[in-house]
Amino acid sequence: MQQEKNKRTREGVVVSDRMQKTCVVAITQVKKHSKYLKYFTVTTKVKVHDEENACHIGDKVVIEETRPLSKDKRWKIVGKIDGTTKKQ
Q: pLDDT (tens digit, 9 = 90+) per residue, 31-68?
């Protein structure tokens, strides 16, 4: 039995849920410019596998890397993040 490598996980917000068993998640990260030392945001949209169609627009989710499921899908939803708790 082969040992699994550590899979990458990301947090993002669902921006589209119109497809069956698929939703689009926007992952936003802050980067620093190498020359000008100014911070800017970069948003990446990825298609994510959602087997039960449980996620809807505006939900914060945790996604995990997986094997290629289709031409565009390489991520799956691990769980939702509850928006009522505040980070300190």
A: 999 999 999 999 999 999 999 999 999 999 999 999 99
* Beta carbons within 10 angstroms of residue 23's beta carbon: 24
Sequence spans of domains, the chain: 9-80
**DSSP string covering 14-58, please?**
EEE--STTEEEEEEEEEEE-TTT--EEEEEEEEEEE-TT----TT
**Model confidence band, residue 85 (pLDDT cutoffs 50, 70, 90):** low
Q: What pTM did the predictor assign?
A: 0.84
For domain 9-80, which CATH number applies: 3.40.50.720, 2.30.30.230, 3.30.450.40, 2.40.50.140?
Answer: 2.40.50.140
